[in-house]
Amino acid sequence: MWKPNQTGSSTPSTPEPVRPATPTGGATFEAARPSAAAAGAIPAGEQATIGKSLVIKGELSGSESLYIDGKVEGTITLPGNRVTVGRNGQVAANISAREIVVLGKVRGNCQASDRVDIRSEGSLTGDVIAARISIEDGAFFKGGIDIRKPGSEVKGGTAGSPTQATLEPAGTEA
Asked: Where is the segment annotated Disordered (predicted)?
């Protein structure tokens, strides 16, 4: 044990007196997270994950963000949250969420109250309704795009409505 009259290290050999009585691991971990949240990452505690080996058929709904690295068939409804289709993800479903990020393959219509982001490795075949859309170089997209003002909701229609504009390559005439 360290005594005040000893020379050498002034650090006690046991750290217990320095530590508070309650564990602070969670508070320390949370304090380190704001930089990740500022970069657009979702904290792990607020995001569910469907792993590579999982196959889900049916209807997914909830109130937290979702990361899909497996296969999903059916419908995904997560209003106010983010749906991320990972590089290994294969989705054959209509997706409705605040934000949709595609790194894998999606076959179905996507409706986002905020934005749809198709990354360079991503593939989306289906119609998109969103306030904003981003398609990186190298990404695959086949479908229609309907840009809506933030806050406007789609009533009784689908992304594949006949009034929707389709993209034509520049320099071509109909």
From this structure: 1-30, 151-174
Give me the amino acid identity at 18: V
* CA 155 to chain CA centroid, nearest Å: 25
Round to whole Å and give the CA distance between 135 and 140.
8
Contact 74, 58 (CB under 8 A): yes
State how far Cα 156 lies from the chain centre.
26
Residue 146: strand pairing partners:
129
Alpha carbons 59 and 51: distance in angstroms, whole number: 17
H helix runs in the chain, sequence order: 25-32, 34-38
Distance, in Å, from the CA atom of 109 to the CA atom of 92, rounded to the nearest integer, reads 9
Contact predicate 149/131, CB 8 Å: yes
Give the contacts of 120 (CB within 8 A, at least 6 positions apart). 136, 137, 138, 139
Q: What is the pLDDT of residue 35?
A: 34
Which amino acid makes up residue 3? K
Residue with tokens 């504009």: 165
